[in-house]
Design brief:
Length: about 475
């Protein structure tokens, strides 16, 4: 290969040497993205309105007196669809996590970064809230660029101060809702309405979250997707040549060139107008191929479609497609692989949902008291001492009684009466299990104990009963 050709190839691939928002000297390049317009932008607007309604409404929705969703990480208490999950439900949590990872792998392999562009809160808040506020206060992308270069005159100071003030207020609002997902609206309301001194930690958390959101949306921006988000970083291994991505049809577009030269030089459909680059919020040129910065926001599809409309060429030079689809000039199809992955995803959702729905209201462990064998009760009975621990996941107190299910005998709860297990709390107690001597066959006997709330059996537990060695 000639040196010249090698240099050209190196130059063509040089965009892979660094991310689009960093220049050769390693300095951040600020992105002034043009406002996108078109059918995908419209649809993304509708989806984000739906997202905002759901995001803002969820903390206020109660199911059986509990929040619909609560992720109280400090207290290790999670509520999903009104059901409380405790550390004892760890296996469900573990399964959820594993299913979640499988879900992500399958979903991304089939549909690429559809999530990033359409539902990811980072993209939605950045593009649909903060970027729009910026257009409103600082004007279009070119006006923003001019303002950034302008000296600090009254206009610049006013616009910048207003923008950052509004950004901080919006970040504060988002932080309030974010905190509501962690501690619930009731506790959040206390932080808002009661003296700061009574909820200092809560108030501090609000300020810290507001600061983080403000920092992200005012300064860090697309860097979250490019250098922080683990999902973004994993795209290289999750995507393959059949995954659906936002792609440039190089077969149709190349060789690119100015519109005036199209006929004379037999050029492709790309007129090298750079509109797709100008609207990109991550500053990349999608014509270089799939890149880790691309969040599949579809802005470049709309920009290019508008250009195609203007020059009278069919839309879709940039479109949702797979790399193989572009190479083989095939339209995007709902392939067998996509169907299979969708079916697998549905199976996962069904398994998880049934696990969540059929989860028991109480979690009990019964163990013989360590270090004790059996006790002789007169000449005809043997007893064992047990400890019981119960986690009550319901909103009501449970007066718990224990009954022997599988053999004749009786249960003597120490202290008498039922074991009281407080709502959403834990209870413990001890009891003797007394069995007639003639019913004990082995040294270790399997028995079944029923846990009752009144007459309703709420759990059935197997344990062992130690007896004397029979001759
Ligand atoms: S917007 Fe379309 S025509 Fe213009 S440079 Fe991008 S791909 Fe080419
Ligand atoms: S390349 Fe297109 S889809 Fe990807 S981030 Fe840029 S504008 Fe969005």
């Amino acid at each position: 290969m000639s040196v010249a050709k090698e240099n050209i190839e190196k130059e063509e691939e040089s965009f892979r040497d660094r991310i689009a928002t960093v220049d050769k000297s390693g300095k951040r390049k600020w992105i002034f993205a043009q406002k996108p317009k078109g059918r995908f932008t419209n649809w993304r607007n509708y989806v984000s309105w739906l997202f905002f309604i759901v995001f803002l409404a969820i903390p206020f929705i109660q199911v059986n007196g509990r929040p619909l969703l609560l992720f109280n990480i400090p207290e290790a208490k999670f509520i999903l669809f009104g059901k409380v999950f405790w550390p004892q439900d760890f296996f469900i949590f573990g399964l959820t996590m594993v299913s979640f990872v499988i879900f992500i792998v399958l979903f991304t392999a089939a549909f690429g970064r559809l999530f990033c562009g359409w539902i990811c809160p980072q993209t939605i808040f950045m593009e649909m809230v903060f970027r729009k506020i910026e257009y409103l206060i600082e004007g279009s992308a070119s006006e923003q660029r001019l303002l950034a270069k302008a000296p600090w005159n009254t206009e610049k100071i006013t616009k910048k101060t207003t923008k950052h003030l509004v950004f901080f207020i919006m970040s504060f609002v988002i932080a309030n809702f974010f905190l509501a997902y962690i501690i619930g609206v009731k506790d959040l309301w206390k932080i808002i309405t009661e003296p700061v001194s009574e909820h200092f930690i809560g108030f501090l958390s609000l300020l810290i979250f507001s600061g983080i959101f403000y920092g992200v949306y005012a300064f860090f921006r697309e860097q979250v997707c490019t250098v922080v988000c683990p999902y973004g970083r994993l795209q290289g291994v999750l995507l393959d040549r059949n995954s659906m991505i936002v792609a440039y049809d190089y077969k149709r577009g190349e060789p690119r060139g100015k519109l005036k030269d199209k006929e004379t030089l037999s050029l492709g459909d790309c007129i090298d107008c750079l509109q797709c680059v100008n609207v990109c919020p991550t500053g990349i040129d999608i014509r270089n191929g799939t890149q880790l910065e691309c969040v599949n926001c579809t802005a470049c599809i709309d920009a290019c479609d508008n250009i195609m409309d203007k020059i009278g060429r069919p839309r879709g030079l940039i479109r949702y497609a797979s790399e193989n689809g572009i190479a083989g000039r095939e339209p995007l199809r709902y392939t067998t692989r996509m169907k299979l992955y969708t079916a697998l995803l549905l199976v996962l959702v069904v398994i998880l949902s049934s696990l969540l729905i059929t989860r028991k209201d109480v979690d009990a462990t019964i163990m013989r008291t360590p270090g004790m064998l059996y006790q002789e009760r007169g000449t005809d009975s043997i007893s064992n001492l047990y400890n019981i621990k119960v986690a009550n996941k319901t909103m009501n107190e449970i007066p718990l009684t224990v009954k022997l299910e599988s053999k004749p005998g009786k249960v003597e709860i120490i202290g008498g009466g039922p074991i009281i297990v407080k709502q959403e709390g834990q209870g413990s107690g001890s009891f003797f299990l007394v069995l007639p001597r003639e019913s004990i066959r082995d040294r270790k006997n399997i028995i079944q104990l029923g846990l009752y709330r009144g007459t309703e059996r709420i759990d059935l537990i197997k344990t062992t009963f130690l007896g004397p060695v029979t001759q």
